Amino acid sequence: MITRRDFLIGSTAFASAYAAATMMPLRAQGTPNFGMPTPPGVGFRRMKLGDFELVALNDGIMRRPLGEEFVRNAPFAQVQETLRVQGLPTEYIDVPYTPFLVVAGNRRILMDTGFSDNGPAMTGRLLANMAAAGFKPEDIDTVLISHYHGDHISGLRNKAGQLTFPRARILVPSVEHAFWMDDERMAAAPAGMKAGFATARRVFTGLTADQLSTFTPGGEVAPGITSIPAYGHTPGHTLYSVRSGSQRFLFVADLTNVPQLFARNPDWAVVFDMNADQARDTRRKVFDMIVKENMLAGGYHFPFPAFGTISTLGNGYEFKPVA
């Protein structure tokens, strides 16, 4: 649990990082131009899971300069070396955004929503990729939210305020909702973090009880889908386990923002984690579970197609996307 003291101590450093990660353009004046990232040629990928179908739906990709602040507890040279040995750039990172759709009989359940038309360039591609995969916004009957960072919830409404998925019931973790909708916390937040509270209000204010429901993480939220508390990244960060027959998939949301860094080094702390100690503990427990139970895993910021396998590697883990 994140206390008021944790919030006040950690919020200043988190505020600028949150703004950069979720809603704000990432290349400030004077920052080197590293070019634009390349989006997936085909922005969706299907995969069978027992009687269900999983569809990864890319909402876009952003490129951000890699600075010393990104990993809070490791030397920058070590961070760069970790990327270099994997054949990756050491001056910037590319951050994809990939919600997942579960097709279960006549159910269409979307996990997280991207930006819609509220985000930076090269984002807001979810609906186009849904259409390419054969789905309309009206087909979505349920939306599951992992946490309230803007890149996960902004896609619930377009810039005009209209609901993107007009028939969907939106299910959110109660702990997360209570934190971001708390007026006292919003008043105490530093300027850079107030945008996060404002985004939550823009998205969720005005929804009726038929449209929005909160739940306590740890139970079933839809047939075959169970919520798993994974606190630390945010106060109510929640994962979703999907099971059909003997097959199981875990949507790990922001358990690790960059698996090439934080899966391989799960004790490293990314600047976006609101409670770094709790997030590190959660990361190891969840990765251990994935490996032990031989689960398929999908991450919101994993390289597209964003789902694959997790295996142990040294003192950490390695993500291998499906072919």
Which tags fit this structure?
single chain, 323 residues, alpha+beta, Metallo-beta-lactamase, Chain A, 9 helices, 16 strands, globular
Helix percentage range: 25-40%
Count of structural domains = 1
CATH topology: Metallo-beta-lactamase, Chain A
Strand order of the largest sheet: 1-2-5-6-7-8-9
What's the total count of β strands?
16
Nearest-integer average pLDDT: 92
Question: How would you describe the overall organization of this protein?
Answer:
- Helix 1 (4-22) packs across helix 7.
- The protein has a seven-stranded mixed sheet with strand order 1-2-5-6-7-8-9.
- The protein has one domain (4-321): Ribonuclease Z/Hydroxyacylglutathione hydrolase-like (Metallo-beta-lactamase, Chain A), CATH 3.60.15.10.
- The chain is globular, with a radius of gyration of 18 Å.
- It has 323 residues and is α+β, with helices and mostly antiparallel strands.
- It is 27% helix and 26% strand.
- The protein starts with a helix and ends with a strand.
Can I get a quick summary?
This protein has helices at 4-22, 76-84, 126-133, 150-153, 174-180, 183-188, 191-204, 259-262, 276-292, and strands at 44-49, 52-57, 60-65, 92-97, 100-104, 107-111, 142-144, 169-173, 212-215, 220-222, 225-229, 238-244, 247-253, 296-299, 307-313, 316-321. The protein has 323 residues and is an alpha+beta fold. The protein has a single domain, classed as Ribonuclease Z/Hydroxyacylglutathione hydrolase-like (Metallo-beta-lactamase, Chain A), CATH 3.60.15.10.
